[in-house]
């Protein structure tokens, strides 16, 4: 089925629409639809941000009035950049269809007011290899489309929404390099489908939550942006919605509603570490396919409405946070810290979820051990989403890496982190990390036996030769750099095995020192920039 179907009114239709919401678009359908948009409007152009493992180009739609020829320079263009991403899990297809519908409808307006305030970037099919494996046997727990959906993994059998930090896939490397680094969007929404609890609302969404980012951004989203988007979605677009989560206990929903994915391997949390605003959209798996697509469509509209109305407020907030991050790195105080362990607590205000009563099943071989009834009920419960540090370490002035590992340097550059090399030898007071334990996981995780680390920091003077890699924290991406380089980080390069070869002697017991050192206080270093 081609997505180039035209309605009786001459309107370009997606596969979802033209099939009466029985199918979802394949790769060629998406590309043909985008081609039609380009033919019909001067306000859109398309770039390829990456080539997938199986050889498919990944398109990025760039929409603006006027259409920018290149990424924005803030001093020359005051518009705000918004990035919508869909189909990272190619069985979760609503965002793919909804984002194409939104682009079509926006471009069909004679004077789209939204484009006076924003540049819109859309990647409707970030996992094209997974998308091509459409089969009715995939995700049979969800309500359509009856003709099937794709698979969760990409052509490397990787979950792309666990790849943000290690960035091993061409898809995520493309997003980071060609979207995040080049366009620096202020707001990013990643579209998914739920797998969890029973509720009534067809749309759920929430904010980035990792506490190692700047908390003022989390508080802005939690206290203003997300509640106002929720209100727009309900009142203007008549679409029921709630904050994303699951019941701690479906049999006892009063125990609370929770969200537990705080690590920056997840794209929205990663985006928060970049000092930007990340939104996770999860459309309700048990709502029918049409309701999921339309709900996602109206959520995108609600986001666009909010951002265009609050453009200056958002841009000013992000500028302030970037400046604050740089100031901290210039001269870290004794209280500046980085969270290496965190826990979650409920928000001060409870949330109301429209749910269903369930009945237990007395069969140990059946999961879940209950069935949903048709009896609806509203519950007002604690929302466990406020992540806070339980253990922290000193935030440094700089990180130094003595080993000459081009893979690590290249990865840091891909992330957009500014690197330097020492131009002369230096004897510096640093904290080195002595390992006392390094244990790989018993089961593969995204192709890795991820490490659990034990050890302690020891302060001493060390001679660093010319050529030593320097990562100063007086840069906007300092929180991301710290998360990647701190040895006790739960999602850093040591966790993901990037330094394993340097840590374990080929003969004998014990461990070598972790090859990244912390300079805690400002010090003069002669360096040359790498990027």
What topology emerges from the helices and strands here?
Layout: H1 15-18, H2 27-40, E1 44-51, E2 57-63, E3 80-85, H3 94-108, E4 118-123, H4 128-131, H5 170-183, E5 187-193, E6 203-207, H6 215-235, E7 241-243, E8 246-247, E9 257-258, H7 267-273, E10 277-283, H8 289-309, H9 311-330, E11 337-346, E12 351-360, E13 370-381, E14 383-394, E15 398-401, H10 406-414, E16 420-422, E17 426-440, E18 451-464, E19 469-472, H11 478-485, E20 516-519, E21 527-529
Helix pairs in contact: 2-3, 3-8, 6-8
Would you identify the CATH H-level superfamily of the largest domain? Zn peptidases
Taking pLDDT < 50 over at least 5 consecutive residues as the criterion, the unreliable ranges are none
Main structural class: alpha+beta
- Approximately how much beta-strand content do the residues carry? 25-35%
CATH class of the largest domain: Alpha Beta
SS element count, helices = 11
Q: Tell me about the biggest sheet?
A: 8 strands, mixed
Here the CATH topology of the largest domain equals Aminopeptidase
Q: What is the strand tally?
A: 21
Q: Which of globular, elongated, flat, extended, rod-shaped describes the shape?
A: globular
N→C terminal distance: 46 Å
Helical proportion, percent range: 25-40%
Counted up, domains total 2
Radius of gyration: 24 Å
Q: What CATH architecture label of the largest domain applies?
A: 3-Layer(aba) Sandwich
- Average pLDDT score: 95
Which sequence of strands runs across the widest sheet? 1-2-4-3-5-10-6-7
């Amino acid at each position: 089925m081609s997505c180039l179907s035209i309605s009786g009114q001459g309107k370009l239709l997606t596969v979802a629409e033209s099939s009466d919401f029985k199918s979802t678009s394949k790769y060629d359908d998406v590309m043909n639809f985008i081609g039609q948009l380009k033919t019909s409007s001067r306000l859109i152009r398309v770039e390829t941000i990456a080539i997938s493992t199986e050889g498919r180009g990944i398109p990025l739609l760039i929409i603006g009035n006027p259409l920018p020829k290149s990424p924005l320079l803030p001093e020359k263009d005051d518009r705000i950049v918004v990035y919508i991403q869909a189909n990272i899990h190619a069985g979760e297809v609503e965002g793919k269809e909804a984002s194409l519908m939104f682009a079509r409808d926006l471009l069909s307006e004679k004077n789209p007011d939204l484009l006076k305030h924003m540049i819109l970037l859309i990647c409707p099919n970030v996992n094209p290899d997974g998308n091509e494996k459409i089969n009715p046997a995939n995700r049979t727990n969800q309500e359509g489309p009856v003709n099937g959906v794709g698979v969760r993994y990409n052509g490397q059998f990787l979950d792309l929404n666990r790849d943000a930090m290690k960035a091993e896939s061409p898809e995520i490397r493309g997003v980071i390099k060609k979207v995040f680094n080049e366009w620096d969007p202020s707001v990013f929404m990643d579209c998914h489908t739920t797998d969890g609890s029973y509720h009534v609302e067809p749309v759920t969404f929430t904010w980035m939550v990792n506490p190692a980012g700047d908390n003022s951004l989390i508080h802005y989203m939690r206290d203003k942006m997300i509640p106002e988007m929720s209100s727009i979605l309900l009142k203007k677009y008549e679409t029921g919605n709630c904050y994303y989560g699951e019941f701690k206990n479906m049999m006892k929903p009063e125990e609370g509603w929770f969200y537990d994915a705080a690590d920056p391997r997840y794209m929205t949390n990663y985006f928060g570490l970049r000092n930007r605003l990340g939104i996770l959209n999860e459309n309700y798996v048990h709502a029918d396919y049409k309701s999921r697509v339309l709900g996602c469509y109206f959520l995108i509209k609600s986001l666009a409405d909010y951002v265009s109305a609050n453009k200056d407020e958002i841009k000013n907030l992000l500028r302030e946070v970037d400046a604050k991050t740089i100031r901290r790195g210039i001269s870290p105080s004794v209280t500046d810290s980085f969270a290496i362990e965190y826990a979650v607590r409920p928000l001060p205000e409870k949330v109301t979820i429209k749910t269903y009563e369930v009945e237990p099943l007395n069969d140990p071989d059946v999961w879940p051990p209950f069935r949903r009834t048709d009896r609806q009920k509203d519950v007002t419960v604690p929302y466990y989403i406020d992540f806070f540090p339980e253990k922290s370490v000193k935030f440094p002035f700089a990180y130094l890496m003595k080993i000459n590992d081009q893979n690590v340097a290249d990865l840091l550059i891909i992330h957009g982190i500014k690197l330097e090399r020492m131009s002369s030898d230096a004897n510096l007071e640093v904290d080195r990390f002595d390992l006392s334990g390094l244990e790989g996981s018993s089961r593969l995780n995204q192709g890795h036996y991820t490490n659990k680390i034990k050890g302690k920091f020891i302060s001493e003077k060390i001679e660093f030769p010319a050529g030593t890699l320097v990562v100063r924290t007086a840069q906007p991406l300092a929180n991301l750099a710290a998360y990647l380089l701190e040895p006790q980080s739960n999602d850093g390069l040591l966790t993901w095995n990037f330094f394993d070869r340097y840590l374990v002697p080929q003969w004998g017991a014990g461990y070598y020192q972790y090859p990244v050192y912390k300079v805690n206080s400002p010090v003069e270093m002669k360096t040359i920039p790498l990027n």
